[in-house]
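Session log. Operator J.P. requested a structure for one protein chain; no other inputs attached. Running the standard single-chain path with token output.
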Amino acid sequence: MVKKSAQDPQDGSLQMKIRQYLVSARPNPTKEEPNPKVFAMRVFARNHVVAKSRFWWNMRRLNKLKRANGQILAVQELFERRTQAIKTYGIVLKYQSRTTFHNMYKEFRDVTLNGAISQLYQQMSGNHRANPNAIQIIRTSVLTKGDEIKRSKSNIYRGDGIKFPIVKTIPRASSRKYKTIFKAKRPNLYRS
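Structure written below.
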């Protein structure tokens, strides 16, 4: 049973529950190399089992190290410090289509990097029919300055003076003792 994280979305239908893991491993010690080099990689996955699998998939291609010839030292889930502010994330990725590999850069606005990666997976599967297993995330960054942001849709909601109108008001009881399930008349939810 996977423990529910505090950074998981409240409505499970809106996002994939992607988590960020730091997986560290090393080759098996031998007589020639009793203390082998330790490799660490940041991996995005649904749980720690999938994170270990993705780690070995990448290690086999990058460092020619297979699961049979290595051992995992630690799998740690990484959490964000500040999840109250919305940030713009820039993500460099590579994905495999039916014909070839494509390099891509995307920007997403979210409160956590896990949420931005969830948006990325959903958009790639919707627009490009890319399987999440075929997507390799190369680099992520938080874009703080206005000139770092390349996509115009990420710049729309940036700024301190932005305001949103209140179009729907839900009348609430002033105290718990006045709260009822059934009302005598239908409430007016929209301002006139």
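Operator note: The helical segments are 48-62, 113-127, 152-155.
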